[in-house]
Each structure stands twice: as structure tokens, then as C-alpha cells.
Amino acid sequence: MSQIKKVEPQVKRMNLNVSIELHNSFKAATAAQGLNMTDVLLEFIEQYVTEHDQAGKKPKGRRK
User: Fold this and answer.
1) Is 57 within the bounds of a domain?
2) CA-to-CA distance for 19 and 27, rounded, in angstroms?
3) Are 62 and 42 spatial neighbours (Cβ–Cβ below 8 Å)?
4) 20-24: long-range contacts (C-beta < 8 A, 24 or more apart)?
5) What is the pLDDT of residues 5-22, one digit of tens each?
6) Which domain covers residue 29, as residue numbers?
7) CA angle (53, 59, 64) in 5-degree steps
């Protein structure tokens, strides 16, 4: 029986300092929409890079 290894995409962790109040508000807002903070931030980052990248290349991000 052969073992198939799942290949995980390479990722880079980012840390962000925000006030506790902003963190709690953001977490509540995303949860109210049934979303999580990471997915919302990744979508924003991808959108921002697409709009501001001179070459117009879309970076590879985490997808479900």
C-alpha cells in the first residue's frame, strides 16, 4: 500500500499589532458574517496587491 503525502503550500506568517478594541471589533464583525479574520485579511491583501501591482500579477494565496 503506497502512502500519498499531501503537499502543503508554502506560507509566511505575519504578525500585526492592533489595539484590543480594534481586534475585538474586527473579530465580532467577521464572526457575524460567518467568516474568520484570516480569510478576510487574505482577501483584502490579495485585492490590494492586485490593484497596486504594476505588472497586474495576482499572487498565490491560501484558498479553501
Assistant:
1) no
2) 12
3) yes
4) none
5) 888 889 999 999 999 999
6) 20-52
7) 140
Q: What is the pTM of this model?
A: 0.68
38 within domain boundaries: yes
Residue 48 included in any domain: yes
Dihedral, CA of residue 33, residue 35, residue 39 and residue 43, to nearest 10? -20
How far apart are the C-alpha atoms of 31 and 20, rounded to whole Å?
Answer: 16
What is the total count of domains within the chain?
Answer: 1
Close Cβ partners of 61 (under 8 Å, ≥ 6 residues apart): 42, 45, 46
Which alpha helices (H) appear in 1-64, and where do they start and end?
20-32, 37-52
Write down the residue that cell numbers 496587491 correspond to.
49
Q: Assess if residue 34 is contained within a domain.
A: yes
